[in-house]
Design brief:
homodimer, 324 residues, alpha/beta, Nucleotidyltransferase, domain 5, 2 domains, 5-stranded mixed β-sheet, 12 strands
């Protein structure tokens, strides 16, 4: 009998559903609009229909599903598969999402996990983290998400909210973060904060080629900051260096905490490519201790846009395996 | 047959040896001077003799030893039980200490681990960490040592040097640390750095009641700083607050990293008592995020001076158990 896995990636705008074979190769995928305002019953129906369509097209039924993995924004009661409330999905308060989805898919076993942890697991099992046992993972987007794998297992923490690495404080009494803390790395080095620091510099009247897009659109994006840095604009370079310094310091701190073999960056901002990665590596080497030489690798994620569904399917397989 | 465990705590000045029963209750203990300049063979002989004396007094032989645990300063090749070189014990370069000790004690199974990890494990299994699964541990002494337990296991890292938590950078471009980094928490909040910051303030001419011991001895100790803070000296209070702020920030960062249920402080500086602990808790509550309420406990270690031998024996039992 063909064994398959379903991976589900719940985003604020779209929900992706993937059908995978047993080695977690993608067989087929679909995307449906989230439309969270329709409420949990409708959204779950839509997810289940998308999964059923993928199965039917592959001439399979729910009895061929070994496990279902679901990645969701937090916070949530992950062990019990219940969402508390999501910032952009108010109707999903206290929704037993895992069991609702399972019930629509033949009551097959399902796992619910934080989206950053799911993406971390995807890269660990199937992407940039292959062949190692200890990894740290960052997503650089609106905020900074994190994931930690130690000895081949995700670190989930005492209350299932470990690896909120965007909220590690790097600059005490520094910039206010959306979480209520001051000086979080997320308040400096996410894509949004990189853009915000540039916008503030421009508002303060610093001379920069970024004035053109700033004047046109009322603000600049992190992509524009990296583009103008590449063209030699001093203000843009200073902002980009600040982002790289913060991320490099965070890498040093993770080395001294869980000591990964590899640190993997993902998310929209890695489109900046080597202009970001080489700077992070340079500052890491400048900042790290000298009493012991380190072989830790710092690199980019490799799975791309399907990370969420790959990670969800792969994590479901792992969590329900005997070896776990 | 009586099952016993041997715990060995190797310090620069003294080596402690403990004999434990199967629930890891201390049966008897001994202490011998390290005298590292005599070289590994002599030191190992002395350790083995101390252990044999304890066994003989208990009318037991090496065949009753289930496992031997050894805590040592690092760095070392812990999985293979080999010391690289210890700062104060140059003759111990590349010494296969674990197997040398085992050979003298009936070839019984032995485990070598970093002394901070050993102490962490002792508190986790037998002290302040009982009944929880996730703990972070700090020693506040000459430096700051660390240990992390996640889901009931020590985090050892890809290269067995995880949890070097004294070298987490809290103040980028800050005070130079002995490790070569700038701004490490150890450079601010260890007992030595707390005293050093006070001595620097006095050298800078700040008015303080600490001038009396400073003038008498050429320097002040961290104990004197806490004593004078308790008596209301403004400079001493400022130094103590700085120590507590750094440690509280480190606690916030560990909450967002491995998310322990409990953070345990140990080491000489916890003699300062509530003057230290209440300040750490106050700053933790001031600094931690507001988007989620936290129930993490911050407390002091409970095992006292026998932590090293208790931790070593307990860890040896754990590492050689089937459940590990």
């Amino acid at each position: 009998m063909t064994k398959t896995y379903i991976g589900i990636d719940i985003g604020g705008t779209n929900i992706k559903v993937g059908l995978f074979d047993s080695p977690i190769s993608l067989l087929s995928k679909a995307s449906v609009p989230t439309q969270a305002d329709m409420g949990p019953a409708v959204v779950v129906e839509r997810i289940a229909n998308a999964a059923m369509d993928l199965l039917t097209q592959a001439k399979l039924g729910t009895e061929q599903i070994e496990a279902i993995g679901i990645g969701t924004p937090g916070p949530a009661d992950y062990p019990n598969g219940v969402l508390f409330r999501l910032a952009n999905m108010p109707k999903f308060e206290n929704t037993p999402l895992r069991d609702m989805i399972s019930a629509k898919l033949g009551n097959r076993p399902a796992v619910l996990e934080n989206d950053a942890n799911v993406a971390c697991w995807g890269e660990f099992a199937m992407g940039a983290g292959k062949e190692i046992e200890d990894m740290v993972f960052f997503t650089l987007g609106t905020g900074i998400g994190g994931g930690i794998v130690s000895r081949g297992e995700l670190i989930t923490g005492a209350d299932y909210n470990a690896a909120e690495l965007g909220h590690v404080i790097l600059y005490p009494d520094g910039r206010l973060c959306g979480c209520g803390q001051k000086g979080c790395v997320e308040a400096y080095a996410s894509a949004n904060s990189t853009a915000a620091r540039a916008n503030e510099a421009l508002q303060n009247g610093e001379k920069s080629s970024l004035y053109q897009p700033f004047t046109k659109n009322g603000e600049v994006t992190s992509k524009e900051v990296f583009d103008h840095a590449a063209n030699g604009d001093a203000v843009a370079i200073d902002i980009v260096e600040g982002t790289a310094k913060a991320l490099a310091t965070l890498c040093v701190n993770m080395l001294h905490t869980t000591e990964p073999a590899r640190i993997v960056f993902s998310g929209g901002m890695i489109a900046a490519g080597d202009a970001l990665l080489s700077r992070i590596k340079r500052y890491f080497n400048e900042y790290v201790w000298t009493i012991k030489s380190e072989t830790i690798e710092i690199c980019f994620a490799t799975l791309g846009e399907d990370t969420g569904i790959i990670g969800a399917a792969s994590l479901a397989k792992h969590m329900l395996s005997e070896n776990h």
